[in-house]
Amino acid sequence: MALKAITREWAELNPVTSFFQCDDKTDQHIAGDEHDRVQSAGAGGVSSQAAAELLGEELPPPATGVRVSKLSQATPLAFTIPAGNDYLLIARTSNRCEVTFDFGSGAHRGEIRYGHMLLHAASTHSLWWLSRPDQTLIIRIPEEMFRHAWDNDAVDPWPGIMRMENFRQDSLVTQILARLAAELTRSRSVNLAFTRCLLYQLCTHLVRRYSEAVDVSIKQNGMPPSRLKKVVEFITDHIEDDLSLARIAKVAGISRYYFCREFKKSMGVTPQRYVLQQRIEKAKTLLQGTSMTITEISARLRFPTPSHFTSTFRRIVGVTPTSFRM
């Protein structure tokens, strides 16, 4: 089914202005500035069909049962994503965008930017409002693909995907999806073998990182898996913040000495080294996905000076940040 047909269904279910008017309950959940902005967008005479035409395009299917939609509208848009027996992955591949969404348990509001993603079971329909939808990808992935990735990576029974209540920063997901979208939009025929490999990589990463069970690669002597998972997620979510050893150990709920010892047993590197590696990975994403200067990236990732950032990047990656960006 073409994206135009899909978005027309969404628009017919909830026209542009009805995102906040479909019932009293929804209107109570979502209010304030977002309400005013969407009301004004709808008041401009945008019809359901026009909203559908502007929403975007459905890209060629990269594998059986997988649907990829790339939004293209540059002005505020409200829409509904219908329920299904699959997982919904929303990812932002460009600059900042305000978002309000509701999976039926109340609205969530915030700002998303390059690298933010949300994974959620599409068991219920969801309501969305984006201030700038363009450069947003919507992917529907059958649960069987996650099960397959899990079964090839673990011996434990499939635990299911953790329910995300808010967007998370995950540069690897964004990088994989950028490659997938580039392949699906190229002028020549799509290389399905390549797209299936990308999807398998994506699903493996998602079940390792976001399944109800902890990543099987860290099940070893050392920090308990649930505690380690909590620490790793905290570091990822706060990689641009001041991550002192005391602060991370507090998240783990143990002393700094014990934390350092158990973390290294589990991860093979010290906490400080792991944070540095993750900052460099974040720097790679910013170098490739933004126009930020070396000085700006250095300050954002809390390196003391641009020269220190450059030397550290070169030591770990093998090239300077400038060369990496070229």
Attribute tags:
alpha+beta; Jelly Rolls; Arc Repressor Mutant, subunit A; six-stranded antiparallel beta sheet; four-stranded antiparallel beta sheet; 14 helices; globular; disordered N terminus
Describe this structure in words.
The protein has 326 residues and is of the alpha+beta class. The protein folds into two domains: 3-210, Jelly Rolls (Sandwich), CATH 2.60.120.10; 216-325, Homeodomain-like (Arc Repressor Mutant, subunit A), CATH 1.10.10. The protein has 14 helices and ten strands. It has helices at 3-13, 24-29, 33-43, 48-55, 143-151, 171-184, 192-210, 225-237, 245-252, 256-267, 271-289, 294-300, 306-317, 321-325, and strands at 56-58, 67-71, 77-81, 86-92, 97-102, 107-112, 116-121, 126-130, 136-142, 168-169. The strands form two sheets. Strands 1-2-9-4-7-10 form a six-stranded antiparallel sheet, with helices on both faces. A four-stranded antiparallel sheet has the order 3-8-5-6. Helix 1 packs antiparallel against helix 4 and helix 8 (225-237) crosses helix 9. The longest helix has 19 residues, at 192-210. The two termini are 39 Å apart. Residues 1-54 and 214-220 have low confidence and may be disordered.
